[in-house]
Amino acid sequence: PASATESRPGDLAVGGVPLTELADRFGTPVYVLDEAEVRDRCRTYRNAFPDAEVLYAAKAFLCRAMARWMDEEGLGLDVCSAGELELAVTAGFPPERMVLHGNAKSPRDLETALRLGVGRVVIDSPSEIARLAAAVGPGGHQKVMVRVVPGIGAGGHEKIRTGTDDQKFGLSLTDGHAQHAIARILGRPQLELTGLHCHLGSQITSVKPYLAAVRRMVGLMARLREQHGLVLPELDLGGGHGIAYRPGEDALDLTSLARKVRRELAGSCAAAGLPVPRLVIEPGRAIAGPAGVAVYRVLSVKRSGGNVFVAVDGGMSDNPRPALYGVRYAPRLAGRHSTAERARVTVAGRHCEAGDILAADAELPADVRPGDLLAVPVAGAYHLSMASGYNLVGRPPVAAVRDGHARLLVRRESMADIRGRDVGL
Length: 425
Ligand code: LLP
Known about the structure:
Helices cover 30% and strands 26% of the residues. The strands form 3 sheets. Strands 4, 14, 15, 16, 17, 18, 19, 20 and 21 form a 9-stranded mixed β-sheet that branches. The protein has 2 domains: 5-32 and 289-421, Lyase, Ornithine Decarboxylase, Chain A, domain 1, CATH 2.40.37.10; 35-288, TIM Barrel (Alpha-Beta Barrel). The N and C termini lie far apart (48 Å). It is of the alpha/beta class. The protein binds ligand LLP. Residues 57, 59-60, 78, 101, 160, 199, 202-203, 238-241, 282-286, 321, 325, 382, 386 line the site of ligand LLP. InterPro entries: Ala_racemase/Decarboxylase_C, DAP_deCOOHase_LysA, De-COase2_N, De-COase2_pyr-phos_BS, Orn/DAP/Arg_de-COase, PLP-binding_barrel. Substrate binds at residues 285, 321, 325, 353, 382.
């Protein structure tokens, strides 16, 4: 990962800018995004999947600059709310290269998508068919896909597994709900079904479940051709490509994924006598995650119950992932060279909750002290996009670094922002 390299001993830098400088200029906590790393990751995808449509899953992290980079790198966008859609459009992102997801799309989501001209809407429930058809109107036209639950369990944590029938997304293949919904869509002339979609889960590090998904989805495509004479031009396999959060952890091998999926798709389609559909993929984490670093300031260090608690000025309000999924991070001391031996410490957040622990088993120099900076690598995905207003600490800013220069992309949430929404007294 981009993440922090050492410019001088102990002085970590991202994109050629020392973290000390970023902390001085933007304050802490601050999220630092390495633009070159984001773009590199987009190019890695484009090169590995030259014939596929690559959609960046905006839920991982979105701001207008990010949307613009995706556009410039030739990616589309997976959005799942009117908010994500509108923000990207205000950055000049072409709506026709966006796909709208969601298991519970609000009237505003659908209205915004249709008004702005979103490329495809992914239908997730039977009731959505009639709602969408009505919103499109009798003379209108909207491309859609159907989210199919293929019955395959995969993903780094139970809360982010979406390929099995016991979770809330999509329409089951096993129970026939997907086939039923497709028949109903075909009865709506204003809805054009362009393909099938599935998303197995997130933080998947093996290629195998994707190959199983290809087989199941092609099986369904073959049945649709038999039953309805339908040949679908697209197959969207979703995202979920796993990354390493700590040194030594496994990441999904994209080259192997691309090669094996292409081979499986060609083989399964040939066996079924189907033309090979255009592949769509939706990586989020694997593009944004490793390109981001969170920088915190240590506020207190104390011993308690055999632990050393190193408490920083952020926590579960900017990174809920350790609390939600038990994810383990590897924070590093930044901005200072220490020759002290390494000690096992608990990096705690500042929130009023015992579960607000950022890293339960961090290895840091034993002389870590208040005023030090800590860098948490691999912080670009599902941190700020899941940030909350807990304890009214204000959400951190995002700075982009590139070629030794930094610029602010998203400013810190101020007391004026917080006070401004409070209109009740
Ligand atoms: N496509 C669909 C339809 C999705 O629901 C998701 C993620 C993605 C693509 C992108 O998945 P990725 O490539 O980023 O794994 N908050 C959790 C992750 C939730 C993922 C939700 N859907 C976390 O922090 O791990």
